[in-house]
Specification:
Length: about 290
Amino acid sequence: MSLVILTGMSGAGKSTAFKMLEDIGYNCVDNLPIPLLKSFVDLSDRDSGGRGKVVVGIDVRNGEALASLQGILSELKQDGKNYAILFMDAEDDVLVKRYKETRRNHPLSGTERIQAGIDRERQKIRFLKEEADYIIDTSHLLTRELKEELQRIFVEEEDFKNLFVTIISFGFKYGIPSDADLVFDVRFLPNPYYVPELRPLTGNDPQIRNFVLKYQEAHVFLEKLTDMIRFLIPNYVKEGKNQLVVAIGCTGGKHRSVTLANMLYQQMLEDDSIGLKIEHRDIGKDALRGK
């Protein structure tokens, strides 16, 4: 039997994940009382002839019974019942924002601030995150991207990437991305903006790419940046980080930053141990402003 324990932070997308897993053929049971878990698994396994696909939702709503979960999971392993733990997570500020948008209180906050409830919840379910087989951070994931991740794990059975790297280009005149972990400034490179025939183009165009890369400094920067990111990735994974946002900025976020973000993305595609995506935040803003 394929058994998934779905858990994680309140507000991180567990309900959405439940619906998606149900759509791909899993029988989903949410908030099952923990004392019933072993009996439920035995019954499901027997009824399905060992070929069932079941998702069980367990989180802080189980209250004090959470303390007994580790022992029950150990018993399941001893009985030869294999399971995977899927942990849904998100950054604290994202969780607070989601609760405020829905005008709901955190289940553990009581009369205190939402952050107090989040802190308590992290403490209570830390052991589940430490033992999780899959950790999905939904802080910056679209619903479509979450569905693709679940498809890869539970349908296509591809290797899961516990660290998801987002490379983003931006313009300093529009502000540094608030969620950036690492910020790099490439305004030291000559600016194609001052070449009239290049000004309307972007870093996605070969003419801009050729202009930026004809300077040796661009190649040296890219080489050193790639080496540093590759050094940092295993260390971030070791300390439990599962989202990394690398921001590369120039003046307007249209030419130099786009080119070098694209080049870094191509370099990092060689690392199949991470999830990877690219975003050009400000690439079209000059056109919208009539510049």
